[in-house]
Design goal:
Blueprint: E1 2-5, E2 8-16, E3 19-24, H1 35-41, E4 45-50, H2 66-80, E5 86-90, H3 92-103, E6 111-114, H4 125-134, H5 142-148, H6 154-158, E7 164-169, H7 176-185, E8 189-194, H8 208-216
Parallel strand pairs: 3-4, 3-5, 5-6, 6-7, 7-8
Antiparallel strand pairs: 1-2, 2-4
Length: 221
């Protein structure tokens, strides 16, 4: 399905029944990375999986900004009339979630984020070197945005008032102290590190993140 928001057209899927759950993927991927997770989550939630702007089937743009992507999701939620949805964001999706929840504190019920960064320095040096190299091959702005954004300040983190569950892999490309800082700075946040997991292994084509989401949202019907 498609929806027009914020001067772009977003593609999304809708599966299941129950309370709304909005899921946003990482950089350079699309909604299909959640296919295994959705099979479990749709038993309790109405799951909306988006393709972010310039990803998947959504509108192409020349320049990406996380603030624009967060506004896309805000307008998506309000245009569909979703009341207090649960939000899950992976990597870029986590950045989007932090910006969304800080700007619209009454919008969401809870938020789970995985592998989110505070700024370009959050990524470990070796992965960042690869991204810089790949940016010369991929001529879109997908790699470039990681060189200049985000800029998630403590002020932004402290403005997030909904319960937040911060996750990462023990072998994540995001520096562990940055992940810990996110969890320690957001009020009402809890931290979960998936032992032995990489940035992607417990999320992409996996049910582990779905099992975790279900475990921390037992109060949402």
């Amino acid at each position: 399905m498609f929806i027009d928001v914020n001067n772009v057209r977003l593609f999304y899927t809708k599966e299941g029944s129950g309370a709304p759950l909005v899921m946003v993927h990482c950089n350079s991927m699309d909604h299909k990375i959640f296919s295994s997770a959705v099979k479990l989550l749709r038993e309790r939630f109405t799951v909306y999986c988006l393709d972010s702007r310039d990803h998947g089937k959504s509108s192409k743009v020349k320049t990406l900004h996380y603030e624009d992507m967060a506004e896309d999701v805000y307008q998506f939620i309000t245009k569909l009339g979703l009341e207090k949805p649960l939000f899950y964001g992976f990597s870029d999706g986590g950045i989007i979630g932090l910006l969304l929840a800080s700007s619209h504190p009454d919008l969401l019920s809870k938020m789970i984020i995985s592998g989110a960064s505070l700024n370009p320095d959050s990524t470990k040096p070796l992965p960042m070197a690869f991204f810089k190299l790949w940016s010369h091959v991929d001529r879109s702005d997908k790699m470039q945005i990681m060189m200049r954004e985000p800029d998630i300040t403590d002020e932004i983190l402290k403005a997030v008032t909904v319960p937040v569950f911060v996750t990462a892999g023990s072998r994540d490309v995001i520096k562990s102290d940055h992940t810990v800082h996110i969890a320690e700075t957001i009020p009402n946040a809890r931290l979960k590190i998936f032992d032995g997991a990489s940035h992607t292994s417990y999320i992409m084509k996996s049910t582990k993140i779905a099992e975790y989401i279900l475990s921390v949202t037992e109060d949402i019907k």
